[in-house]
Amino acid sequence: MPENAAVHVIDDDEAVRHSLSFLFESAGLAVRTYDSAEAFLGVAAQLRAGCVLTDVRMPGMDGLALQRRLRDIGLRLPVIVMTGHGDVPIAVQALKAGAADFIEKPFDDEVLLAAVRAALDADRRIREREAEAEELAARLASLTPRERQVLERLVAGQPNKAIAYDLGASPRTIEVHRARVMEKMGARSLSELVRMALRAGVAAEADPPRDTPRD
């Protein structure tokens, strides 16, 4: 879990905040508490990892309004809402709006911890995928225009001789470009290279132009 990942508890009841803070700290989880949605929004823009645990019914901005606001500002931390027994319809609204889960008060500590850990794991996986996408984009950006052309044709399944014919180069030159592409992309095999390229959104060159520049 990233060093700055924490459970952000939002509840206007001080006793609840204290109890949840103790629970999460005892379980080895970082926790921050806020007495209102407005207080949390004051720092939300700086957050990049963790999850949000918020009460639904609070003075001022309630949990559903907070959830909408977080979506509006682009904060994608998983949100878990805490509800009373009579608030199931509200909890359903929260789920439809993208909440990760809802917990009914009074809640079982282990059930709550399981929900929070699941939310933190989901957030971690999202961050890992984003980091991988950024790394792949950086590797793609390091390719020369000719190397990018070679990569697109490899994704299309073309052999070296066909790529050489399309690009007006020798097969040996294409082999050199291909080796450089493999090195820059950090691929250990052609199949791995193709999978990486597809994940990065590289489109296969189906009908390449014949007037491309020579090497």
UniProtKB/TrEMBL annotation:
Q: Which PROSITE patterns match?
A: HTH_LUXR_2 (PS50043), RESPONSE_REGULATORY (PS50110)
**Which biological process terms from the Gene Ontology are attached to this UniProt entry?**
phosphorelay signal transduction system; regulation of DNA-templated transcription
Per the UniProt entry, the signal peptide is none
What SMART domains does the database record attribute to this sequence? HTH_LUXR, REC
Tell me which CDD domains the record gives: LuxR_C_like, REC_FixJ
| MF-aspect GO terms | DNA binding
Q: Which Gene3D superfamilies would you find in this protein's record? A: 3.40.50.2300, Winged helix-like DNA-binding domain superfamily/Winged helix DNA-binding domain
Q: Which keywords are on file for this protein? A: DNA-binding, Phosphoprotein, Transcription, Transcription regulation, Two-component regulatory system
UniProt cross-references to Pfam families, sorted A to Z: GerE, Response_reg
Q: HTH luxR-type domain: which residues?
A: 136-201
What InterPro entries does the record point to?
Answer: CheY-like_superfamily, Sig_transdc_resp-reg_C-effctor, Sig_transdc_resp-reg_receiver, Tscrpt_reg_LuxR_C, WH-like_DNA-bd_sf
Q: Which residues form the Response regulatory domain?
A: 6-120
4-aspartylphosphate PTM positions: 55
Q: Which PANTHER family match?
A: DNA-BINDING TRANSCRIPTIONAL ACTIVATOR DEVR_DOSR
The molecule here is called Transcriptional regulatory protein FixJ
Which species does the entry assign this protein to?
Caldovatus sediminis
